Amino acid sequence: MAGVLHDTGDVADPRTARAAVSTGRLPTAEAVRATLEGVHRRFRDDRGGKVADYIPVLAEADPELFGIAVAYVSGGVHAAGDADHMFSIQSVSKPFVFALVNDALGRETVRRRIGVNSTGLPFNSVLAVELNHGSPMNPMVNAGALATTALVPGASPQERWDFIRRGLSRFAGRDLLVDDRVYTSEAATNQRNESIARLLDSYGALAGDPMATTDLYTRQCSLTVSARDLAAMGATLANGGVCPLTGEQVVAAGVCRDTLSALATAGLYERSGDWLYEVGMPGKSGVSGGIITVAPGKGSLAVFSPRLDEAGNSVRGQRVAHFLSGALGMDLFASTPHTEATA
Fold it and tell me: What span, in angstroms and rounded, lies between the C-alpha atoms of 123 and 120?
């Protein structure tokens, strides 16, 4: 991870990029727009990492695609590059489904059934479940995400699916749809998640049928979004559960706080500590190349770039988030006076 975040090429001195303080508001629309365009130019030739290939349809992604979007809690959205390109949400769905379930069932029920600690192991680790005596540990890794999806309310598979799809659509402020090709491809290759679900079930840690839960989770990961959508979804978490685009209260403010706490511990899997140290915001990645990161009370940054590191996180996305968290004053731990940081 250190190599990913520190290898910034010709980016401005990181000390300059990290000079903004994480209080107050995001910079003006003009400043954000200019910064995004400049950062896109700086990183567009960055070709570190490789496209995910363990899900066949994801291997078809154009590795040159690169989009950035920032959404304000006030409702403004600014973007650069391929910010409107559609891709499957994958693991970036995890915090939003967790938030919906937390809101529906209550924080203590969810915390008791799923847990909020980091595993320190890869996102799809079976060993993490065994080492923790069947505990899913955290909703941002696959075991915890499956346990979360198993708690989705509904009297039938269709009702449970409608709960997820409509809920994530409310976060985005528009209707989200499934990419059937992605769903079919993943359903044919999701044996590891099926194994994790069966293992959880053997410990009594799964609230639903293992195969039905895995299928529902696979479908949720196949919803299509853009970087612009992800920024709006993250801004809803930053805005106390109110979608900035629609004004709808999607989940309670306390649920957003709990979700961001879980993100901070495991949003980038075994690299989460490095991410938080360098970027200073809770974030979540997905194997299709999407990354979101959230500054509570301000807004959200989303990046789409399909080339990944060995942990399954977008390489270019991490580097962009590292730079912009400081340049836009989003780093929650920064405490130095604001100075102009340009791309």
Answer: 9
CATH-assigned architecture of domain 108-221: 3-Layer(aba) Sandwich (3.40)
Q: Where are the domains of the chain?
A: 2-91+223-327, 108-221
Are domains 2-91+223-327 and 108-221 of this chain identical in fold?
yes
Q: Under CATH, which architecture does the 2-91+223-327 domain have? A: 3-Layer(aba) Sandwich (3.40)
The model's pLDDT over 277-321, given as tens digits with 9 standing for 90+, comes to 999 999 999 999 999 999 999 999 999 999 999 888 999 999 999
Closest to 99 (Cα-Cα) out of 232, 278, 262, 281: 262
Q: Which residues contact 259 (CB under 8 A, 6 or more apart)?
A: 95, 96, 98, 99, 102, 237
Inter-CA distances, 21 with 6, 130, 323, 331, Å: 20, 42, 14, 7
Contact predicate 258/101, CB 8 Å: no
Strand runs labelled E in the chain: 50-51, 67-72, 77-81, 87-88, 224-225, 283-285, 290-295, 299-304, 307-308
Identify which of 42, 39, 87 has the alpha carbon closest to the alpha carbon of residue 308.
87
- pTM for the predicted model, two decimal places: 0.88
pLDDT in tens, 13-68: 333 444 444 556 888 899 999 999 999 999 999 999 999 988 899 999 999 999 99
Q: How far is CA 83 from CA 100, 176, 339, in A?
A: 26, 16, 28
